[in-house]
User: Fold these one by one.
Assistant:
Number 1:
Amino acid sequence: MSLPDVLPKATNTALNLLGFKGTATYKLYRLVIWSLLQELGRAICYRCNGPLIEGEFHLDHKQPWRYTEDPIGLFFDLNNVAFSHPKCNLTARKVVHRPSVMRTHCKRGHIFDVGNTYLEHRRDARSGRPYVIRNCRSCHREREAARRRGLGY
């Protein structure tokens, strides 16, 4: 049994007529987007401002949409969409946008700002992957003061 016999009819037709398997429509979309980016002079990476290369770009969201109050609206907001290098986009995705990361205050109500926040680099016990957590300096000071006084926190 050959590969074309196993493929669905639409893909089989694309293989016979166009010379490749997969969705021809997807390749056409990318070609149209690339053409428009070049025509508008916007073939630059949103993240690093470097020139994009044909066939090597990702559709990227400027602002993470998953943990917002209106994820659908932000996902489909065309002003929130940009193009980037695959490497730049994947690097940006490594910064996990969980609700705990996006909080503005600690659990005791202190604000997470530059002066009151310190980062702690850790490794996951199972996977060994590094991650970063934010800590509140005010809470740390209060815990240390309570420890010195012999009180629990």
Number 2:
Amino acid sequence: MQQANYRRWSVICVVVLAVAASGCDKKDTAIPVVAAPSSAASSGSAPVSASSTPTVTPSPTKSMAPSASPSPPPCRTVTSPKGTVAYGPYTLEQNVWNPVHPVSQTMRACSASSWSVVTKAASTNDGYTAQSDPDVYRSYSQPASSLPHEYVSFGESSPELGVFGWSIDSSFNNQNSDFVMVTIWTDDHGLSVEGTQVGGPITLEGTKYNIFESNGFQFVFTPLDHSTMAQGTIDLVPFWNYAVGKGWIKSPQTLTQVAYGVNISDTSSLPEKFTVSQFAISASS
């Protein structure tokens, strides 16, 4: 009986020991703690720890590569006298259209606002005949009256030698009998206007101009003080309105093209570089 009581005491001590290990003392004799066999062990299965928690290994995080920026359009070389290259709504053209003498010209185009030509042209001996007119233009087909503003931003650099002039040209009514071109000179380097003065002086966009009619269809606004503007922004609408008011642009007054370029008469027979570093057309300044 005493031995049975001792066994019961031992089992109780196993449980109580987790709460108060010092209370499991019988006749001052230390009782060894023996773990109770689990049902898994008795059935021959591998022991499972009741306190263990399944470990979940997270899947490796995939690193997201940064999205590549769109590549800029490639730069191109144009050697054909009438060769063109397009960038979005704009077209660049060599436009060697009137070679009095053999003209050598190569265009390097990277965008509408980044292009250049290297031109070699002999003198025409008259000071006004353009042999080449490399430019950038945008096409339209809408009434000029539908545009409350049309701003052209531009920037260029030119050589010291030669006879040439930079201009903005607005064309109306296609190439029919009512075709008209309104030209605004921005940088004149010795180029003269072949024509008759028909207007001015008048101040538009902060500059005072005289207006000349040339070839019966072109109206050229030339700065009265021959000032140069290598870069800037001009609203074309006041010039169109002036020409409409004078009756120069006849109905239907359909705008077909706006161009910016350089009229090259000669380069003293030397290869000279003309560069455009800025160009854009916008309805707001």
Number 3:
Amino acid sequence: MARIDKSSPFYGTSGRVGNLIFRTGAYGTTVSLAPDNSKKNKNKRRTNRNSRMPQAIEYARRRIRDPEMHELYRGGVDETKNSAYIVAVTDYLNAPKIIRINTGWYSGNANQPITIYATDDFRVKKVMVVIRNAHGEVIESGEAKMRSKRYGRWIYLTTVVKTPTAGGTLLVTVEDHAENMTSQTVALDDNSSEQEGGSQD
């Protein structure tokens, strides 16, 4: 739970806005994440997000003062998030997710696509790729390009020729506009070609 400053447009608000609950009483206005019926692990994540609420509010205040960021977050307003401020708060509280990584077209040569599917509660800002050999040495790295906003598909085209993939790894890091990051490492010699998941930083 965090206290809302009197200068905030949400001071004096009571009720639910998106996944946030506002309460106003004799001591001012507070905000917290709305409860849900999730299991214990999800409840633990919600508790962690609630502990970050003061930082989320401060982040939203700074971003809304910036005309460019204000306009960016306005693009996320919908029926559940009815202001750019709420969009910014929830963006800070929620890290992006890596849905799937496909390395099936990569055999260690240049100009071969590695496909990453990633989502965020607002928008994914960028997707970075690092390829290492079996000794942990960086062979190449770079930024993937968005190919489908609707499906969250990003593609990285490799640049180095004749890279030995046996024992090598691929590190994917996804970042949102609040600088939350989620990373996942996959083995390049895993011929299943598609792996899911990701860990939040």
